[in-house]
Structure formats: structure tokens, C-alpha cells
Amino acid sequence: MIRTIKVFPAVLALSLCLACSSSDSGPGDVPVADNPVGDQMSEAGMDAGNDTGPVFPDPILPITDPLALRVGVSEATMPVPVGINTAGFGGTSGVKSPFVENFLGTTKVWEHPDFKVVFVEGGMGRLIFVRSDTVGFASPVWQALVERLQARTGLDFSDQLVVGATHTHSGPGRLIVGAMEVLADSFFPQLFDRIVNTLVDTILAAYADLEPARFGYAIAFDSLMHDDRRCENPLLEEPDMPLLRFDDLEGNTKALIMTYAIHGTVLDAELHHLSQDVSGGIERKVQELFDHYVPVLMFNSWGADMSPGTPLKPTKPGPYSDLLGAYTTCEGIGNRAAQTIAAAWDSIELKDEVDLSSLTVWLPLNRDALGYEDGEFPFEWGAVYCGGGGDGECWSGEAKPIPDIDKGCLLFPEELPAPDRTLVTVGRLGDLVFATFPGEAVTQIGIDLRDAISELAGGLDVAFFGYAQDYIGYATPEWDFYQGGYEASGAIWGPKQGDYLKARILEAAGKLFDDSVELSWTPPDPMVPPRVEGTDPWKATASTDPGAVSTQVLAEYGMTDVVEFAVSGGDPWLIAPRTYLEVKTGGDFGPFLRKNGTQVDSHGYEFSMLFSEDPNYFDAPKAAARTFTWTMKLPVTRVADQVTPLTEGTYRLRLTGQYATADGSIKDLEVFSDEFAVK
Predict the structure, then answer these.
(1) Could you give the CA distance from residue 176 to residue 182 in angstroms, rounded to a whole number?
(2) Most buried of 19, 253, 432, 435, CB within 10 angstroms?
(3) Contact indicator for 414, 422 with CB cutoff of 8 Å
(4) Which residues have C-beta within 8 Å of that of residue 618, sequence separation ≥ 6?
(5) Is 14 exposed, middle or buried (0-12, 13-18, 19+ CB in 10 A)?
(6) Burial level of 549, CB count in 10 A (0-12/13-18/19+)?
């Protein structure tokens, strides 16, 4: 008997999310000289202008002769408003805001989501690595990015562009179109337009930053940072942590790309956060290894069954230990990552001549392509949540398949079908091969693919970039799907999805190494990105009494206290304000710097931020003006160990941002706190 349940968006989103619960001169953490994008978003990025932006003034020429190895880096704040819903947790909790429709929104920020880019060229190839603080990165967004890059530069980067999501469940929603909107709320065209334009600007800034470089890699290993959360199959944990190191010719590290399998779910839904979650803790703690700013890009790998693990224990328990435990966990895991990477760092052999190559292919997704027989997974338009996600028994030494679990699923209807295609990219940087995976691979899928590609490549090492280029849910081996459980239920094309993707990626790798290899399928056309032409620009609401301080700092704090500072700022559409910590030295205030020369600010792990509005959105949805209150909290001492802790001294806070006036103009805002002593 075939049991089918038609998808109702609110029901599906709720079901999936409940199961998920198991200086104005540049960014404060990036000296402006080291970061060509800084924290200033372009006019195209900030406004829903519905165009691709200006043509890039310095042409990027096609490669006709081998190039010397060069690398450029850049990053930008993700232009998302507080109040947007999270994609990882759906609509289970939060508040009403103008930035959501069917779901509820966020009210807090910790480690504000951002984008980071590493642009590499060498030999006859180029590669663009983009790290996005999102739960996934859907192929229509990827295709829009390719098209807008081509409009700006005249070049097609579809083979060279690798976009990976960290899989933070506290990243923004509303960037997906079609059936997957049930996971992320309805499509928001103005936000989509802003996101894609900001990404284009950031990629071009990385190109403008290119300089001669050397490249090397190592495979580090760490089993303590994650745990196998899937009990329906044998215990399996693979500790791979590939490290891709880029140095300038003077021996200064310019960028680090790393991949590791870990679910971005330390912060749960009830915290209502926009956050990088554990990947942010990892990146920032690893960055503190260096004596200068080094952007660290953490890509997730086979994280489908890997929950966050056991961090290094704090060495300073005390009265401040009741601070939010999720922050401490992320920071502790980050400290552990830094320790692991430091141990492997000197083993990396650097080369200044590296050939780059890459290939992107589109794959069809339907019952015929996946090879289903009559009666198997009988859902023409895809289905999900087979078995309800709660079926199955923990592994007891033998497989216990659940009969007909592939038939009791939430189906996608014809008018709202699951994606019918996806894409993968395979590539090579010298002796390192990499492959992307369009979603959440369990560890077995990841290591099978890693080993098969390595064998095909004559024993070369392989880096696995999961959650990259697209997001089509979970992937297990076919036998494992029939064991049931949450991970198995999340494959939108059923039990064969994992093995199908693995086989096609391996074929693509074969073609990368030998272009004469014929693929066993005809690649479909790329996904058509959503069109946003004609969309009215989003207008920010005017601010009441901008710059007014509602909570002033105290004159003095002890080492176990929390500094609090609240200011009336701007509409969240103008992006959350940024607050910087300054220290008094010799009678003047200047930036309080970490060991790596970056300034402590509210985009780092040191601060958290709370937003509220008056009148609130629920009681007065059409208010012409509001008081937008932004509250900053800075614990003087962290529970997790810090490389650069606060010490005794005199400090102040500097808040910067923007606000809208009654006539619609946008003004800059800068507010200083009173000075305060730490003793």
C-alpha cells in the first residue's frame, strides 16, 4: 500500500524543524588595508536596483597562456536584516517582523553572518571559493551569481565558481524559490537581489586583490570536534580536516581554506539568533593563531550525521559561567580547531607553481535518472520525510530495513515539484583534488567518494566540499535509507539519491582527468534563476530619536561583569549597527586589538546584540517611524579561553550605523559610550 501525504508548507516546515532541533573604515576584525571590500556595501548591493551593477573597470582576460600563481581575498557583511527568519529552523519560533511572511523572525545577533572569498589563478585555470553563512546555497542563487558575474566581466565562471554553505542553522531564509520555500519562508526578491549583488562585488574585490602567492595543503585530523549523531547505522566518524594554505611571496599567510564535518546547530531555534554558529567560532579562533589578519574560510564536508562534539574545557570557571552556554561551546570547539591546525601547520609544503583545473556539470533529478523500478519511491515530483523521520532502531549489529519506508512520504505536488536538476564541481589545485556535494552527505557517502576519487587520481588527496553549489537535502547509501531515521528521511529524491550523486560525481572527476571520457547522461540546462525585474526597492522606516542612549555603561566593571550599552539606531534593513571596543592609552582612545591586529567589535564572538522596536511590528505594522533599539552586551571575561582577553584599563564603545529620516534619506550614525574602567 502506498501512503502519500500531500505537502502543506507549514506542516512540512514544522516537521522538519522539530527534527532539526536534535569602523566605518572597514570591518572591525579586518584592517582596512587588508580588505578591499571592507564593510561598505555597494549601492547595487544595498538597494534592490534589479540590475547587475556597473561593468568591472579592469577587464579579467581569458587565459591564453599559463599564469603565475596569484591569490586575492575579500569579505563582506551579509546584508540581511535582523528580523529575517532562519532557514535551518524554519518557522518554529521568533517574532513577527516585516521581513517574514509565514515564519517568525530573529531578534539577536552573535557573530554576524558574512561572505568570504578566495580568488586563485595559476597555470591555465582560475578558481573562486566563496564561503556563505547559510544553511545551504541553492542552485538558482548560484546560477544568478554566474550570470551577473558574466554581465559585469564578460567571462563565464561556471566551471570555476565554488560556493559552499557553512550550514549554520541560524543563517537567513527567504532566498530559495519553489518547493524548498517550505523550509525557508517565501521568496524575498529584494533580499535576493541585494545578496547576489553583494556577492558579485565581493568576488570582484578579491580579484582586484590578487598578488603573487604560494600554495600548499595538509590533511589534519580531529575526532573531538564532532560526534556521530545517527544511531540507525554503525558508528562511523572520519576526522579529515583538509587545510588549503595560501601565502604571499614574503612568507605571510594570506588565506586558509579548511573543510570539516560538523552540524551548525549549537545555537537552537529558541535563541532567535542570526549567527555563524559553530563555524564562526572555528574561523575566528583559528584566525587568532596568526600575528596578522588571515581570513579563514570553513567549508562543511560530510556533516549530515556529525553533531558538534566535545570542546576544550574552559580553565576559568567562576561567577561568569552562567553566560550563554552555546557561545562557550562554539568558542571551545574553535579553540580545539586552532590547536589541531597549529599542530599541522609547519608540515605544509608550499609551492609557487600550481596548476588549477575544474569542471562543473549539471545532473538531472527524476525517477528515471535515479533508476527507480515500478513501485519504488513512486513520487513523480519528489518526496521527503519518508517514514516521518522517527522510524528506525539504533544499530544493534545487523541491518533492519523498514519495509515500504520509501512509500510513506510527504510528496511534492506537481504544482510545487522538488528541484529536477542539480550541479556538482570537481577540480584540482596541484596535487590536491576536490569535489563538491549538493547537500548533506552522511559520512559513509563522503568517505566512499573521497576514496574512489583518490584511486581514480592515482592516490592524490581529496578535499570534500559539502553543502556546496546547491542544496537538495540529505544523502545516505541506499541500504542505510531503509534503516529509517531523520537523516534518511531528508532525501528529496528518495533512497537512491546518495548513491546516484556519488556515481555521477565520480564520473565528473573522471572527465576532469581525461576530457575524452563520455558522461553517461546528457547534462540538462542550468537552473533558471528567479527574476526580480520590476520589484520595488525596499524602503527603510524612519528612526525616532536616532543616537539616543537608553542604557549607558557603568563607570566601573569587575572581571566577571557584563558591559551593556543600548542605543536608538536604524531600521534593520540598513543592517545591524557595528560596535567597536576602544582602549585608553596615553590619554587618547584607540582600537582594542587582538593578537592578530584586528579590532574587537560586535561582529566577533566577544559581543552579542539584541534588537527591539517601538511600536512593535505586531501592534503597529504600518508605523511611519519607530524607535529601533540596539543593545550591545560585552562580558569582560569569556568562559572559553581567549588569546587576547580584556585586562585592567579604561575603555569605551563606539557604535556606527545608518538610519532613515522622515523624507527617506539615509544618514550615518556614530555614538560613543561614556568611558568605563575594568578592574
Answers:
(1) 9
(2) 435
(3) no
(4) 95, 96
(5) middle
(6) middle
| Residues facing residue 75 across a β-bridge | 116
d(CA 115, CA 119) in angstroms, rounded, equals: 13
**What grid cell was written down for 297?**
574560510
In 3D space, the residue among 216, 211, 28 whose CA is nearest the CA of residue 593 turns out to be 28
pLDDT at 387: 85
pTM for the structure as a whole: 0.93
CB 186, CB 173: distance < 8 Å = no
Peptide bond into 615 cis (omega under 30): yes
* Structural contact between residues 297 and 245, judged by C-beta atoms closer than 8 angstroms: no
**Edge-to-edge strand list for the sheet holding 240-248:** 161-165, 125-132, 114-123, 67-77, 211-221, 240-248, 253-260, 296-300
Q: Can you read off the three cell numbers belonging to residue 153?
A: 566581466
Helix axis angle, 139-153 to 189-208, nearest 10°: 50
Give the amino acid at 621. Answer: P
- CATH architecture assignment, domain 542-678: Sandwich (2.60)
Q: Which residues contact 134 (CB under 8 A, 6 or more apart)?
A: 87, 113, 165, 166, 167, 168, 171, 172, 175
Q: How far apart, in whole angstroms, are the C-alpha atoms of residue 53 and residue 386?
A: 44
pLDDT number for residue 47: 47
N-terminal to C-terminal alpha carbon distance within the chain? 71
Cβ neighbourhood burial of 666 (10 Å; 0-12, 13-18, 19+): middle
SS3 645: coil
Do residues 288 and 191 lie in contact, with contact meaning Cβ atoms separated by under 8 Å? no
Please list the ranges in the chain whose pLDDT falls under 70: 1-53, 90-93, 317-319, 322
pLDDT, residue 112, reads 98
Task: From residue 32, give the alpha-carbon distance in Å to each of 39, 127, 163, 312.
Answer: 9, 24, 25, 33
Query: How long, in residues, is the chain?
Result: 679
**Residue 555 near residue 567 (C-beta atoms within 8 A):** no
Task: State how far the alpha carbon of 451 is from the alpha carbons of 236, 259, 460, 476, in Å.
Answer: 15, 16, 10, 16
**Strand order across the beta sheet in which 421-429 lies:** 356-364, 421-429, 432-436, 461-465
d(CA 475, CA 446): 10
Phi, psi of 454 (to 5 degrees): -60, -45
Cβ contact 164:199 at 8 Å: no
Q: C-alpha cell of 194?
A: 541585494
Q: Structural domain boundaries of the chain?
A: 357-513, 542-678
d(CA 476, CA 465): 16
| Amino acid residing at 443 | T
Cell of 637: 571575561
Q: Say how far apart CA 90 and CA 183 lie, in whole Å.
A: 6
- Reading the block at residue 348, the C-alpha cell is 605544509
